[in-house]
Amino acid sequence: MNERRKRWTVLVLVSVVMAMGYVFWDIVSPISTSLKASLEEGGMGWSAAEYGFYAGSYSIFNIFLLMLFFGGVILDKCGIRFTGLLATGVMLLGAIINYAALTMVSPLLEIDVPFTLFGLIPGHLKTQVLVASLGFGLFGMGCDITGITVSKIITKWFIGHELASAMGLQVAMARLGTASALSFSPLIAQGFGLSASLLAGAGVLLFGFVLFVIYTFYDRHFDREQAVRRTGRIAGSAVSIDAKSETKEDSFRLRDICVILRNPGFWLLALLCVSFYSSIRPFMKFATDLMINTFGVAETTAGWLVAAIPYGTIVLTPLFGTLYDRYGHGARLLLGGSVLLLVADLLLAFPLSHSAAYALVIMLFVGIAFSLVPSAFWPSVPKLVPLAQLGTAYSIIYFVQNIGLMLVPVWIGGIVDRHTVRSNDGLSSLHVDYTIPMVVFAAISLLAVATSLTLLLSDGTKKDGLEQANMSQQ
Ligand SMILES: C[C@H](NC(=O)[C@@H](N)CCCCN)C(=O)O
């Protein structure tokens, strides 16, 4: 197999592994209403607060046990193969615990929670919710560590080649995973029961684990070839390189963390990541409700309007990635995406029309923004951070991103509660005015605009290469 074919095969393998993670991540979202239904109606009787706690538990280990940070250190210290197997294994284990909670732990047992952590934890929790959350937290830890591992794998194989196209395709596969979960999970649950969706999700993760095992053979082969090349280059010298070990670039020293933390470019990227993703991901959690309340569409139509976001990104992310590879202008792509998101937020806060067509156009704007920024953001990180520190750098970025992803929905949820009024039309009793929540999202997007503008300006003076094409050879 020639080099080019090998690296694209690797891309397919690891993108599918990652997409499997995204499938499980959203497997419960479309069936949450059924989960909240009573036992007699075939649900599990979860309260909205319990569901919110379960959904937020994805980030619990990543944030409170600093697992993302340690994951990055393990990646840089122990290498891709070890970390990838560990992370995909933990994802699978978490998913199995999550599934087992829904089938084996009674939803009738409740416990009183001794501390509520500033209102983030409900005062009473079903033991089933607690066990499911433990599983989902473990899954989240494995999933995000798989994320940094996959980013490092793609960088390792594609640096100097089609790096942004490759990362764009990987993100497109991830979005396909999200879209598939949203589309198929309700069908599986309707046909075979709620827990069947989770079982299907766990099955999908087992498939991902097997694919990662296959990838390790490619990885070992790559390292051996690199070692042979190096040995060739230093032929005659007394230095010997162990062909079994990973490449020298992968070795990590603890003081590298200080190097990363002292890099202002890194902090700009981390700030852009948390502001952009905190503005778009939590928005997507509230978007269906916003469609119903602001544009008066039915729940199913609202779901389809919001689904236009991930479906649109499947095509656009690799397209923008290819443009970045060939023509550069990464900082401009970041700025363009952030500005577009800001405009979309404002057009939803102060709608010019209340038609479904208007809402669809805005969702397409959001989809374009959600393609522009990720396609330029992730391949830009290796331009500001050396390969030896890349795993740690990605993990710190994910860590900062997770803080926003955990806090912003809680914040917006509180604002939504305060802007919910009982309507008099006798049909839907509650109405939410989304003006203020959307203004808050717009303010967070404005921070993303300011950060990407700073990145563009500093690239002009420091020449970090964000505006340069990624491909140095075909
Ligand atoms: C590519 C990018 N990834 C992330 O934002 C990661 N934090 C997600 C990690 C894996 C899934 N939990 C994206 O999805 O845009």
Biggest sheet descriptor: 2 strands, antiparallel
Give a list of the ligands: the ligand C[C@H](NC(=O)[C@@H](N)CCCCN)C(=O)O
**General shape:** globular
Q: Mean pLDDT, as a whole number?
A: 86
> What's the number of structural domains?
2
What does this structure look like?
This protein is mainly alpha-helical and about 475 residues long. The protein has 2 domains: about 1-250, MFS general substrate transporter like domains (Growth Hormone, Chain: A, Up-down Bundle), CATH 1.20.1250.20; about 255-474, Growth Hormone, Chain: A (Up-down Bundle), CATH 1.20.1250. It has helices at about 5-25, 30-35, 50-55, 60-65, 65-80, 80-105, 125-160, 165-190, 195-235, 255-260, 265-295, 300-325, 330-350, 355-385, 390-420, 435-460, and strands at about 110, 125, 420, 430. A two-stranded antiparallel ribbon has the order 1-2. Strands 3-4 form a two-stranded antiparallel sheet. Strand 3 and strand 4 form a beta hairpin. The radius of gyration is 23 Å and the shape is globular. Mean pLDDT is about 85; it is low at about 235-250. The chain binds the ligand C[C@H](NC(=O)[C@@H](N)CCCCN)C(=O)O. Ligand L6ULR443 binds near residues 22 and 171. The ligand C[C@H](NC(=O)[C@@H](N)CCCCN)C(=O)O binds near residues 25, 143, 171 and 174.
